[in-house]
């Protein structure tokens, strides 16, 4: 075998059309072998890496080809008390692997220490028969005329989905494509997204992940995928041909190309806050064996142990430049090579931890902010972790948007009938200026959501008050306990028509509230279908009918409603403002673009502003937007009135005055999907039933017909 010196960059395995360059970082290893696997029995051939440049070990194999399976072995001190866990008996997955050649098979040999003893005892069994293998890939792909949609944030509607769960049971998707990247690219899937006016899909993790051993032993899996091992490799479980290492790469790119052609962006949920290796009792699969002390944030007092800000066992060492490089290289790879349009960072505060405390201006954010590639894509933070000071809603830098947990809690609590101060509700409905305006951000910094993958579905949110997570095998201890919700009078399934009608209204109320709020709406896949997870609010380990969307059982009436409300969101510019209302307080003297009303028709007083109200109205002035379009023309639209009644009584709401030549026209009422488009004058009363939301708009009063006009003239002559 010919072995040439090669180059230290790029890291990983790089096919250049003539051969393959291999490069891997380790600061403290004493020896590293490249291990090649070939033939039916995957015979191992070891190639010692003789060249070392700037702590990168490298070689070039002129005879290697795409499809070559490989891994690494690293020798060095095994001194866990000092944070050093080298073990040359363990085959290691390349941190920069672009494809997975073989998945992991759980076995005690995967652990660097002897199972049954403590983690300071070296295990000398060879793990190569069970360890995951990386594969060399040829990244060539025909993108044709692919163009990024580049939707501005204020015109973005996000649809959060799981690649498998979305299409596993979708009619119209060929059987072999169900549950795959190719399934999302199918015409049936694209048509559904288009009809909802979706502009971006947010995919639950698609980086190569490992199923936790304790889940496998229970017959469960890490379905959501928050257990990453390969930050460059698309997960082969979503490929139509998992046996072909290159198929996942090609099919992911094809999916992106098809979504872009449909005008839909691709956002990845990424997990850089921990890896699949867990704490000191976890397996040695990659980073731990290559250079544990460099890759992981170890306890300063006792480096045998890991700092854990996620509850998953470890956290990356964001102080080390090679760890920062790994994350940045991964992000740029997905943007430049795979052409994704943005990222949602799981437990993002962990990435800002440099000295255990959260630093919002940490190295990671500084690097992102100045990066010419990454600073231009959509960046979303999940703004909390479990470490000290980890709840960071409203504290991320300019250029970042955030999952707004404050919005979720306020919207849920209001419709559950709980007391929510009116000013709190108002801030959430108008882009949460109290959270984002002071840092120079805009309303679209707020990613608004009522439900997401983590928690109840929308149907379950109004059907259960308590979690029912027994299927997870943790005695119902997992999952959140305070869900700010109401079961509408009965726990779980029921035949009570009154309860069912109330639940249907509540679902419409919350979906409509989401679409009528300033900020970026995010819809959980399946909510528009009435998907249920039977009260399980933590389905991270359920890869079955509980999480796969049941398209045959879809609530067609609610789907029609969801599509109609999404169309209103798309058509009404007053719902997609780029700036906060007047750039200052959202109520008070002289505020014309947003106003708040009591059922009596009077604006709220200062005292009432501080109090909770079960029934309130919000008027959005479409002629006072004070923004211009891309050609500099003033943006104008309809004036909307949103009236919300979360009480248990019918309210006769006095409609605010309009311009003399205008009337209020009903767009929809959640108490009746088929309510006719009635018109009313300002000062008239609108009957708003209990637990109901209605939306009206102003429009010019229609001129009377010729017959009616003649009668009016005659009447005036008589007078």
UniProtKB/TrEMBL annotation:
SMART domains: Aamy
InterPro entries: GH, GH13_cat_dom, GlgX_Isoamylase_N_E_set, Glyco_hydro_13_N, Glyco_hydro_b, Glycogen_debranch_GlgX, Ig-like_fold, Ig_E-set
Domain Glycosyl hydrolase family 13 catalytic: 160-560
Gene: glgX
Lineage: Bacteria, Pseudomonadati, Planctomycetota, Planctomycetia, Gemmatales
Feature: compositional bias, Basic and acidic residues: 471-481
Name of the protein: Glycogen debranching protein GlgX
Keywords: Glycosidase, Hydrolase
Keyword Hydrolase in annotation: yes
Record keyword Aminoacyl-tRNA synthetase present: no
Pfam families: Alpha-amylase, CBM_48
Family statement: Belongs to the glycosyl hydrolase 13 family.
Chain spans, region Disordered: 471-495
């Amino acid at each position: 075998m010919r072995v040439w010196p090669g180059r230290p960059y790029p890291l990983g395995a790089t096919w250049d059309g003539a051969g393959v360059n291999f490069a891997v970082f380790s600061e403290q290893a004493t020896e590293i072998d490249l291990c090649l696997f070939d033939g039916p029995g995957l015979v191992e051939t070891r190639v010692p890496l003789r060249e070392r440049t700037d702590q990168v070990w490298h070689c070039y194999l002129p005879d290697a080809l795409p499809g070559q399976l490989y891994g690494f072995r690293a020798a060095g001190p095994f001194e866990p008390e000092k944070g050093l866990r080298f073990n040359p008996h363990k085959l290691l997955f390349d941190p920069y692997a672009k494809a997975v050649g073989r998945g992991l098979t759980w076995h005690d040999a995967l652990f660097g220490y002897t199972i049954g003893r403590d983690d300071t005892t070296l295990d000398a069994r060879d793990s190569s028969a069970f360890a995951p293998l990386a594969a060399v890939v040829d990244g060539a792909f025909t993108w044709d005329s692919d163009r990024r949609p580049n939707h501005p944030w204020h015109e973005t509607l996000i649809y959060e989905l799981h690649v498998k769960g979305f299409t596993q049971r979708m009619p119209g998707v060929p059987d072999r494509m169900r549950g795959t990247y190719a399934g999302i690219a199918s015409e049936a899937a694209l048509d559904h997204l288009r009809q909802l006016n979706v502009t971006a899909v947010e995919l639950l993790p698609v980086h190569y992940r490992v199923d936790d051993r304790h889940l496998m032993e229970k017959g469960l899996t890490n379905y959501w995928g928050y257990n990453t091992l390969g930050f460059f490799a698309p997960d082969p479980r979503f490929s139509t041909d998992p046996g072909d290492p290159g198929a996942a790469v090609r099919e992911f790119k094809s999916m992106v190309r098809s979504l872009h052609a449909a005008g839909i962006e691709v956002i990845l949920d990424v997990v850089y806050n921990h890896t699949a290796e867990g704490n000191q009792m976890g397996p040695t699969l990659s980073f731990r064996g290559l250079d544990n002390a460099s890759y992981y944030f170890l306890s300063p007092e006792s480096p045998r142990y890991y700092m854990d800000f996620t509850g998953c066992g470890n956290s990356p060492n964001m102080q080390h430049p090679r760890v920062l490089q790994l994350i940045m290289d991964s992000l740029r790879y997905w943007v430049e090579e795979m052409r994704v349009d943005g990222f949602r960072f799981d437990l993002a505060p962990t990435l800002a931890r440099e000295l255990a405390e959260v630093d919002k201006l940490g190295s990671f954010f500084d690097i992102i902010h100045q990066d010419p590639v990454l600073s231009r894509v959509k960046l979303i933070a999940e703004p909390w972790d479990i470490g000290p000071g980890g709840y960071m809603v409203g504290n991320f830098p300019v250029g970042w948007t955030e999952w707004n947990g404050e919005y979720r809690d306020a919207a849920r609590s209001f419709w559950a009938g709980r007391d929510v101060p009116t000013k709190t509700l108002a801030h959430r409905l108008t882009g949460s200026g109290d959270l984002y305006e002071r840092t120079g951000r805009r309303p679209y910094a707020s990613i608004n959501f009522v439900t997401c993958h983590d928690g109840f579905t929308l149907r379950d949110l109004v059907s259960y008050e308590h979690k029912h997570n027994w299927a997870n095998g943790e005695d119902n201890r997992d999952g959140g306990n305070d869900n700010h919700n109401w079961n509408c009078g009965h726990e779980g399934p029921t035949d009570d028509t009154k309860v069912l009608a109330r639940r249907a209204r509540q679902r419409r109320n919350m979906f409509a509230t989401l679409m009528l709020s300033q900020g970026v709406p995010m819809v959980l896949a399946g909510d528009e279908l009435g998907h249920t997870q039977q009260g399980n609010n933590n389905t991270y380990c359920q890869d079955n009918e509980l999480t796969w969307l049941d398209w045959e059982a879809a609530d067609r009436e609610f789907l029609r409603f969801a599509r109609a409300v999404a169309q209103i969101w798309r058509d009404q510019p007053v719902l997609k403002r780029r700036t906060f209302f007047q750039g200052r307080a959202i109520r008070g003297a002289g505020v014309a673009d947003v106003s708040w009303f009591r059922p009596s028709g009077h604006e709220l007083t200062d005292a009432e502003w501080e109090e909770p109200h079960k029934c309130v109205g919000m008027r959005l002035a479409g002629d006072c937007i004070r923004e211009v379009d891309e050609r500099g023309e003033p943006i104008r639209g309809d004036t909307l009135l949103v009236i919300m009644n979360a009480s248990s009584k019918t309210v006769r709401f006095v409609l605010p005055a309009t311009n003399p030549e205008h009337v209020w026209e009903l767009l929809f009422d959640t108490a009746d999907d088929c309510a006719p488009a009635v018109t009313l004058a300002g000062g008239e009363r609108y009957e708003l039933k209990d637990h109901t939301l209605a939306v009206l708009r102003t429009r010019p009063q229609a001129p009377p017909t010729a017959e009616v006009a003649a009668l009016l003239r005659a009447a005036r002559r008589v007078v």
